[in-house]
Amino acid sequence: MDVRDSGGVTSAVPPPRTQAADPAGAAEADAEPETRAQRSGRRSIGVALLFGAVGAALALLASRQTWAKGTASVAGGDLPLSATGSDVTGVPAALAIVGLAALVAVFAVRRAGRMLVSLLLALSGAGTVAAALLAANDSGALDEKAAEASGDTAATIGDLSHTAWPYAAAAAGALILIAGLLALTYGRSWPAMSGRYERDGAPRPRKAPPKVDPDRPEDLWKALDRGEDPTREA
Question: Residue 2, CB half-sphere, CA atoms under 13 Å: how many?
Fold first, then answer.
């Protein structure tokens, strides 16, 4: 408080309040959004890797399991038959492999390349979902097996039933799709593989040839093996 005495009159005039500059607080406020973005990026990486890997593994596993069962009428009676996911359709397994490769490639490319690979990852998941759902009630593979077993090309399967594995493959495709969407949304902030091993086109410095001691025969032979003239003075 500023106490002033002017003409016998004492007045208390409070100094004007100014907002103190707090560089540390401002820096912290500026850094907070970046910290949140980095945190979201780290979480999205973990979720995408987990969902993509689990989805690809589940799709491959589901393709090896029985998707449909039935019986075929043959001379000796009814013959039980079954068809695995790969018998019905090979699309989910193939797209799962493509999606797994795209998941790894996301970290090997940058900028537009990363967006294209992320789109491929998402499309692989969507294609897996569509192929699995379309084949969930398919009986074509069992009809072919019934025709082979009975020797009648017009034979069809009876007592047809389906398992839940096609829907497991569809769920696997959904996981791959989520991984692709995360890559499309947050992929720009994800780290890339280290470029320490990349060739930048710069010439590599050559190592100086080891010094040849003319008194040591082994040095002379080594120089000759390297195509050098051991008698030439440096």
Answer: 7
Q: What is the pTM of this model?
A: 0.65
Residue labelled with tokens 């103190």: 20
First to last CA, the chain: 85
Q: Which H or E element spans position 58?
A: helix 23-63
In sequence order, what are the beta bridge partners of 221?
none
Tell me the C-alpha distance between 162 and 166, whole Å: 9
Q: Is 60 left (phi over 0), alpha (psi -120 to 50) or beta?
A: alpha
- Tens digit of pLDDT for each residue in 146-164? 777 777 666 667 788 889 9
**Cβ pair 67, 13 in contact under 8 A:** no
Asked if residues 97 and 126 have their Cβ atoms less than 8 Å apart, the reply is no
